[in-house]
Amino acid sequence: MNEATILNVKHPDGQYDVIVGSGLLPRLRELAHIRGPVAVVTNDQVGPLYAAQVSPVDCVLTVPDGEQHKTLQTVNGLYGQLLAAGIDRTGTIVALGGGVVGDMAGFVAATYMRGVDFVQCPTSLLAMVDASVGGKTGVDLPEGKNLVGAFKQPTAVLADITTLQTLPPAEFAAGMAEVIKHGLISNPRLFMQIEDEGRRLRSMSPVRLQTLVSDAIRVKRDVVQEDPFEHGRRAVLNLGHTFGHAIEQVSGYRVAHGQGVAMGLVAAAHLSARLGYCDTGLPARIEAVLRQVDLPTRIPADLPAEAIYQAMFSDKKKVGMRLRFILLRDVGQVFVADEVGEEDVMAVIREP
Ligand SMILES: NC(=O)c1ccc[n+]([C@@H]2O[C@H](COP(=O)([O-])OP(=O)(O)OC[C@H]3O[C@@H](n4cnc5c(N)ncnc54)[C@H](O)[C@@H]3O)[C@@H](O)[C@H]2O)c1
Ligand SMILES: [Zn+2]
Q1: Residue 12: pLDDT above 80?
Q2: Is 67 touching ligand 1 by the criterion CB < 6 Å?
Q3: Does 157 share its domain with 211?
Q4: How many domains does the chain have?
């Protein structure tokens, strides 16, 4: 078996390792240095596939699958089950699942008994390369996504890439949108390798997959290490997301997050080219890479441009009433732009 890759993450209160490899779940206690009782939080899709691999543990708490269950109500149920299982302050909460489980279990770990240890075992590509690193946890409110939360750093992250074998293809593609985003932010080599691999990416060897996941995590690690509480540099992780979130919202979430991000990355590149910041060939290059992994790249024509523009203002990441875009100078070079005019944004949204 290929040796695991270990990425150390430093944060204001300490540090933790992100371990990327195969066959990690059965070694949970040893790799995450857990001594006390363990409560695994998982969902009804992932639990039946992988919970047995992390045994013996003290309890497995299963929530229903889906973003619609990332709520305070589900969290409330988890608190009760933890108490019933006798988990005290010496306990460790282990998230086993995608980003939904990770965000919710992390929020429980941040608040149960004023905080207990937390370990992430991400099982989706998106959770591995994005959600499980950086310490942001939380739940949704009826008014919007991720409106309640806490920073809670894990004590370890075990990204067992063998779990990706059962990930539905559309979810794999969604994770690839974030991997490609990470390449665009600061790792041109990662982007160009994906560009070269083309459709061969679908039959990636475990060794290649481990490298891909590790490279993508390293980009996020470096950004969150520099800006743990999202005061500055961390904004670059929103590349493609100002457009993406608005597209998702206006489509009534018919366009999934990864798809919205893919469209958003292309839109951000078009905007950068239009404003003269990057080569005019860059949008087509990004589009081609996203298409290789079966992601849509054009904003559906039936979504009104005006509504998309307005929806950008409801994104909680806006600053005052000015829209913030992350723009590209080249692959691997991004910057924050706060002074983009409506006309340019609208022209990009309307791009056929
Ligand atoms: N905290 C952060 O910094 C951060 C960053 C990005 C996204 N997020 C959050 O992450 C969530 C999205 O995460 P996601 O894309 O992983 O969605 P998800 O957790 O809903 O997982 C996607 C689907 O794949 C299933 N699944 C996961 N792993 C599987 C496996 N190995 N085999 C079979 N099925 C599997 C899940 O049950 C689900 O149906 C959102 O709630 C988002 O807000 C958080
Ligand atoms: Zn995203």
Answers
A1: yes
A2: yes
A3: no
A4: 2
